[in-house]
Amino acid sequence: MNKNRLMSPGPTPVPEKVLLKMADTIIHHRTPQFQSVLKNVNKKLKEAFCTKNPVLIFASSGTGAMETSVVNLFSKGDKALVINGGKFGERFGEICKAYGVEVVEYKVAWGEEAKPEKVEKLLKENTDIKAVYSTLCETSTGVVNDIKSIGKVVSSTGAVLVVDAISGLLADEFKPDEWGVDIVVSGSQKGFMLPPGLAFLSISEKAAKMIETSDLPKFYFDLKAAIKSNLKDDTPWTPAVSLISGLDSVLDIVLEEGLENVVARHAKLANVTREAVKAMGLELFSERPSNAVTSVKVPEGVDGGALVKKMRDEQGITIAGGQAEFKGKIFRIAHLGYMDGYDTIAAIAGIEIVLTQLGYKVTLGKGVAKAQELLK
Ligand SMILES: *Cc1c(COP(=O)(O)O)cnc(C)c1O
User: Fold this and answer.
1) What are phi and psi of 3, to 5 degrees?
2) How far apart are CA 247 and CA 234, in angstroms?
3) How confident is the model at residue 171 (pLDDT cuts 50, 70, 90)?
4) Of 260, 137, 143, 243, whose CA–CA distance to 192 is shortest?
5) Is the pLDDT at 2 greater than 90, yes or no?
6) Region at 57 (left for phi over 0; alpha for psi -120 to 50; beta for the rest)
7) How far is the CA of 237 from the centre of ligand 1 (A)?
8) pLDDT at residue 7, as a whole number
9) Which of 6, 68, 310, 340 is the most exposed place for a label (fewest CB within 10 A)?
């Protein structure tokens, strides 16, 4: 028997206390009891998002909130600037195209960050762009983008800035109001330490104005309905009662620790992971590494697919492989949400064992010793 350790950048482990909370009896959502839960959650969620703007909750995976941001901002034929530096930036472009929104794509090489000057140039060349789409942490590459600088560029124009912070929120430093971010999208199964199934979206006044005139088709994800209900601490449709109850519990944990401490904890584990893999002689993939996930190049001669598979099936540790053209070429170790130094040590120890089995020459314990040194 193996103990399964989830070290992927989503889904992530859920604290035991939160699992128990979600096992509570279901309460009806149109009751004072549930409304009081939702009222607390709405308030705490804003704190966790570091924003004064309302944060709406949907019963969907994170992609639902990405789609919400598209169908509510635009009308057919409108133009968006999409920063595509990996799988998730690419997805924003796909959603836009599915709804007939014209896409100006800023293609960033995998592993590199989006350059704010380039965003500025593209906005100058295309003055009719209504929204700019970026990821905070591009989970497929492990890059965290410089949203502060990109926000400075976008907020001086009429366009709104939409940021996919599904994996970056609570892991990487992020100040949406200060940095001029209009819509922040997130999900439950990453830094929020919950099962998959909830999506979040915050909305600024500038963005709220834009949604007034949007005529793309929408129904479940109609933000006008969601905002109206949110003002009354209600939801237009049946909310995911159990997950919201878990969210209530998770937000207490996060806010009690304090946002800055939560981010600092992620930064520490990220640093430990990076230094430990370097001590094993491996190379990092990302030019501006996120605190959520570390991407590592698969060394020459090693089968990257086998590494991830053996880690999962033989060591009980789920890490992530590369996606698309980087399948088999990189692997990704998360340090996100409910993970601690001993999870990181386990991941590093497992990687040393499996790499050795796959023919890579490393002295066992090199990476682990580095991790211990940095954690002590
Ligand atoms: C996980 C993730 C998503 C996808 O979310 P789903 O919950 O699978 O729909 C989108 N963007 C980023 C950056 C992610 O990490």
Assistant:
1) -85, 125
2) 16
3) very high
4) 243
5) no
6) beta
7) 23
8) 98
9) 340
Q: Which two tokens mark 25?
A: 């009896």
pLDDT, position 5: 96
Q: Please state whether the predicted TM-score (pTM) of the whole model is above 0.85.
A: yes
- What is the Cα 147 distance to its own chain's centre? 14
Atom 6 in ligand 1: residue holding the nearest Cα? 62
Whose CA is closest to atom 5 on ligand 1? Answer: 62
Average pLDDT over residues 113-124: 98
CATH 3.90.1150.10 domain residues, the chain: 5-11+258-375
Out of 1.10.630.10, 3.90.550.10, 3.40.50.1110, 3.40.640.10, which CATH number does the structure's domain 17-256 have? 3.40.640.10
Note the helical H segments in 181-289.
Answer: 205-213, 223-230, 241-257, 259-279
% of the chain surpassing 90 pLDDT: 99
Residue 169, SS3 per DSSP:
coil
- Phi, psi of 45, rounded to the nearest 5 degrees: -65, -40
Name the residue with tokens 């340090």.
335
Assigned CATH for 5-11+258-375: 3.90.1150.10
The beta strands (E) that lie in 29-147 are given as: 55-58, 79-84, 102-107, 129-135, 137-138, 143-144
Q: What is the pLDDT of residues 44-88, one digit of tens each?
A: 999 999 999 999 999 999 999 999 999 999 999 999 999 999 999
Share of the chain above pLDDT 70, in %: 100
Residue 190 alpha carbon to ligand 1 centre in Å: 9
**Ligand 1, CB within 6 Å, residue ranges:** 10, 61-63, 88, 135, 139, 164, 166-167, 187, 196
CB of 213 closer than 8 Å to CB of 33 = no
> In the chain, where does the domain assigned CATH 3.40.640.10 lie?
17-256
